[in-house]
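FAQ: What does the model actually see?

It sees only this:
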Amino acid sequence: MAAKPIVMEQLNQVVKLYQDGKSIKGIVRLTGLSRNTVRSYLSLVSEDVCNTKQSDKALAEIFYNQDVASYKGDRYQQLLKHFEGADRELTRPGVTRQLLWREYMDVCPDGYAYSQYCYHLQQFLRKKDVVMHLEYKPAEQIMVDYAGKKYHYVDELTGERQKVRTYPVR
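And it is asked to produce this:
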């Protein structure tokens, strides 16, 4: 399926309503999904799935693993090997995705183009990244993220470069 998949709760609701004997038109009315979406998901389900209670994991295997594209080629494996070091490199100041892509193209001249490289890198990092949502009251505290190289200034008396020190705000 090329469209964005529906969430698991909606999928469970569609299967449950189908098990209860509702028509496609009735399922559409109750779920708010389009008729073609309901019809395409129900075409993937077999009678034995509808007659038994399935776990979310089993339903996900049935409905979401319909990709026919295979990424198991040598070119993709080389890309994954490159990504293992690239995620560490991206944390260093001055390192960009384009710089990493140029290094990748030097090693693999028949590799992926820049747009596909960025797409696969995003997918690779999404599996590794941990995200935390911070909730706070506005103007109660300030959060500053320093990225890149640290600032410096030149001492006019000595002509030396002095690093700017950053302190946490409390």
